[in-house]
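Q: How would the structure tokens look for this protein?
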Amino acid sequence: MIRTEQRKRQARGEAILNNRRPDKTGGIFMEIRKTAMAGTLESSDAQITVEPGDNGIELTIESSVIHQYGRQIRKVALETLSRLNVENGKVTIFDKGALDCTLKARIECAVYRSNGITENLPWGGVIQ
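A: Here is the predicted structure in token form.
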């Protein structure tokens, strides 16, 4: 039982590491390789689109609650991308009142999809 769990964890880690590349400091970062989307435009949800980019993170936010929560949405998005070690890309958020945990999950999903990672996802392991 324990060995099976260890193998599953190793397989998950290998799937993620195969889609990352080392940076100059020896760390690893996730790269947005192709356009991908996650989420819906339903109430209390958000639709996230990620696209490849070269000039750091370009973040665009459209929200029905931008005046009340715009700073928090931006903070959550940038923290999530930072935890995934995404350094470059265009990220568009269409928010319809999503909670922070929903934003994190949608961003994480879009980044994984952009890398073609669809199995053995480390949900909750990368994002805290």
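The first helix runs from residue 2 to 17.

The two ends are 27 Å apart (CA to CA).

Upvote if useful.
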